[in-house]
Amino acid sequence: MILFLFLFDPSQLINTDTTNRQQAPAVVAYENFVHIFWEDERDTSCDFDIYCRTSTDGGHSFGYETVVNYLHEKNQRNPDGAIYNGALYVVFEDYQHYYDISFSRSTDHGKSFSPSITVNDTTRYSQRSPKITVDRSGKIFVVWYDRYRNKDIYLARSTDNGNSFTPSVLVNSLHSDSFPQYQPAIGTDSEGRVFVAFVDSFTQAIYLARSTDQGNNFDHLIRIDQGKDSALSCPDLAVDNAGRIYVAWEGRRNSDYDIYLARSTNHGESFEPEIRVNDITDRNQRKPKLVVKSDDLYVVWEDYRDNNYDIYIAKSTDHGVSFLRSERVNDYTEKSQRYPDIAAADRLHIAWEDYRATSADIYATGGEVRIGTEDERSLSPTIFAIPVEELSREGEIFDVTGRRLTKVISPGIYFLRIGDGVKKVVVIK
């Protein structure tokens, strides 16, 4: 029998203030540290600030909460984070006269952040939608949508841990016109290549721009999608250890949106035809996010199949050729859960906006998706349990859907995780 073990913790509230809006989460993880950023409306002297809350035990609990931005005037919005050897980096939209892209750094695991600096080198009109990544040598790359210079995608690089940034470089230099290019996503490979995916509004297409000189120039451009969507948006990009590039997006080619993914195995020279990630096509599936963990690829998205948005995850064990069935992440389903983000360290970590209260809050969970068979070493012989009270003393309990339980109240089949092993448990009374 094939076993699909969805081993995630119960969802937990991240923000400590619950009287105002908290939204747009971004999550990063390194070893046992998990950091979640979001935009927060609690300060009545401004509109939104950027907050960060940190877990030091692999996401099982969250401790200190920190305000990232030093200026508390007007709006700071849409954070994105990255981490390199424990150094924590964050970029966000910062509105003073127009929106600029601000960068800040923490060297004490999110307890405090440096005064922010401006990344973009023009401060006329607004710069929006920042994304950040760090390559294996520690170089920091920030990309954003520039609403002033012909509404294009720009990039800046730091080689000194974020103390300064190079002049901005036009990313879509091979595809620049008067129509907007927006919603950038960025990744790097181990050989110094930089990849940026973005949406072109005129052709309604997803493009990839590539730099082979660490972001100084972008001399290769290719369309990723096959032109089958009447509308598409929200690309995300990931690169695995073998250099395979994955780009996911939401596309409407039927009556609703679905999640599609295309991959390149030749450093972005070409892309294979896209596949649909979601296995249920009723209603909308939107806002995909990607992460690579070990040799596996994961996609999360918001899913409207049950008349509220929920957060779903799917796993690929063959490098994006196919995906296993999707499973719901959130354990509260009465109201919508939206705008997920995902990161990976020893476990997967997922954060999202939760609408169970009057205003949005940030919730998160951590865990893993394990695939196997009953005769694998990770599963010991079946236990027939009497009494059931003994189970909770032995380890973590999960039902057949993979949901973590605090106790067992009825007979059935369960799974007991003890350390790195999982035991099948049959409760008979």
UniProtKB/TrEMBL annotation:
Q: Which InterPro entries does this one have?
A: Sialidase_sf
Question: Which SUPFAM superfamilies does its entry note?
Answer: Sialidases (SSF50939)
Q: How is this protein named in the record?
A: Uncharacterized protein
